[in-house]
Amino acid sequence: MDTTIYTIKKGDTLFSIAQRKLGDGHRWTEIKKSDGTKFTEAEARQLQAGQKIFLPQAGVSSSYSTSSNGRRRSANNKQSAMVQGDFCQKISQRSKIRMSLRENQEEFS
Predict the structure, then answer these.
(1) Largest CB tally within 10 Å, which of 39, 41, 69, 91?
(2) Contact status, residue 34 vs residue 51, Cβ threshold 8 Å
(3) Domains, in order of start, for the chain
(4) 21 contact partners, CB below 8 Å, separation of at least 6
(5) 3-class SS string, 33-90
(6) Model confidence over 3-31: pLDDT tens digits?
(7) Residue 103 half-sphere exposure, CB side, CA atoms within 13 Å?
(8) 72 DSSP β-pair partners
(9) Looking at the whole model, is its pTM more than 0.90?
(10) What is the pLDDT of residues 34-90, one digit of tens each?
């Protein structure tokens, strides 16, 4: 897979970079550190201006696809719809998938 080198700017988050450069903020987990390894959530919160990262090819996502009804599915094909009264922990338990509101905070602002 082709990659592009990107230099972190002040105020960047992996979510915002993925949104701008890859077209989907949820693809932040595909972004890799300069040594080629993936970011942990802790590392993703400690980005430094000037830090170099590798972006995957913009149009190709290995993590998500869209189902026929327009809902996004993860690579393991799990899908969950929100219902009234849902919150992240409840959806995560029901779907048996790990999710973090922190990763999605820009989507909900």
Answers:
(1) 39
(2) yes
(3) 3-56 (3.10.350), 78-109 (no CATH)
(4) 4, 6, 55, 58
(5) ECCCCECCHHHHCCCCCCCEEEEECCCCCCCEEECCCCCEEECCCCCCCCCCCCCHHH
(6) 899 999 999 999 999 999 999 999 999 99
(7) 17
(8) 66
(9) no
(10) 999 999 999 999 999 999 999 998 765 555 444 444 445 444 444 555 666 666 666
